[in-house]
Amino acid sequence: MKDAFSYFTIDQESVAEFTDRGSKFIAYACPITSIEEFKGFLLKLKKEHPKAVHHCFAYRLGLDGNLFRVSDDGEPSGSAGRPILGQIDSRELTDTAIIVVRYFGGTLLGVPGLINAYKTAAALALQVVPTVQKQIEDVYELEFDYTLINDVMTIVKRYPCTIYKQDMQLFCHFKIGIPRQHLDTCLQQLKHVHGVEIKPTLK
Description:
- This protein folds into 2 domains: 6-133, 2-Layer Sandwich (Ribosomal Protein S5, domain 2); 137-200, Alpha-Beta Plaits (2-Layer Sandwich), CATH 3.30.70.60.
- It is built from 5 helices and 11 strands.
- The protein has helices spanning 35-48, 81-90, 110-127, 149-158, 183-192; strands at residues 6-10, 14-20, 23-31, 54-61, 67-71, 96-103, 131-135, 137-145, 162-168, 171-179, 197-200.
- Strands 2-3-6-4-5 form a 5-stranded antiparallel sheet, sandwiched between helices. A 4-stranded antiparallel sheet has the order 9-10-8-11, with helices on one face. A two-stranded antiparallel ribbon has the order 1-7.
- The chain is elongated.
């Protein structure tokens, strides 16, 4: 169940195929964390399917639900991108992209037929990949003397933080993601370790 401290996404790629009156719709679902990552995914599929007539897509990124994009890539307006996004949203997913590659089969499907085909292909791609629930994290950088490593690591493990980067020299530099539900307590305990410098940052 979704709550204020977690979100749903996928953590692996999947592919599914739907055929209607000779036209083939191949849907690729992919976890993404940035627009650049999505562009790379789209470019890769365009190279893999140079003879496809359309590469329609939708993606949603971030936790506020405001960062999304849809593309009909030459199909009638509203017949591809929106139905694909509808499948992402019906499962309450974010950080997720779906690209549907179409090979034309010689028969026009009409707008209702296209909506059904893109929606079905996207739904099939999401059916074969597990939905995962992830903790919402706030990212912080920690700097401290190596002698404090045990104290810091005890706290980092207690509030299962994600370690994104660690540089352990005489002076240590960590980048960690603190689960939001433990944020205040975790920061409080880190502040109690004298000599740890804490600053919020971005992933």
